[in-house]
Amino acid sequence: MSYVPILKAKDIVSILLKAGFRVVRQKGSHIRLKHILDATKNVSVPVHNKDVPIRILKSILNQAKIPLEEFIKLLGRR
């Protein structure tokens, strides 16, 4: 099983931007992102002042259709 990093929401958003997503809107404490090439990839990231729980990060990756290994590689390129 792969290591799941504990990150802040701003770090997750920056990695998703590298993965080809763009910010569509922000309503309240959630940022909505959409993939530039694939309109079926829509992601909602909660932006609170604390770390994003692992289960929420896994849900975000599921919405983005990004495998955990690819996400960790993008994390390493920061």
Explain the overall architecture.
The chain is of the alpha+beta class and 78 residues long. It has one domain: Hypothetical protein (Metal Transport, Frataxin, Chain A, 2-Layer Sandwich). The protein is 38% helix and 23% strand. It has helices at 9-18, 54-64, 68-76; strands spanning 21-27, 30-35, 42-46. It has a three-stranded antiparallel β-sheet with strand order 1-2-3. Strand 1 and strand 2 form a beta hairpin. The radius of gyration is 12 Å and the shape is globular. The chain starts with 8 loop residues before the first helix and ends with a helix. 19% of the residues are buried. The mean pLDDT is 91.
Write a compact overview of the structure shown.
This protein is of the alpha+beta class and 78 residues long. It has helices at residues 9-18, 54-64, 68-76; strands at 21-27, 30-35, 42-46. The chain has a single domain, classed as Hypothetical protein (Metal Transport, Frataxin, Chain A, 2-Layer Sandwich), CATH 3.30.920.30.
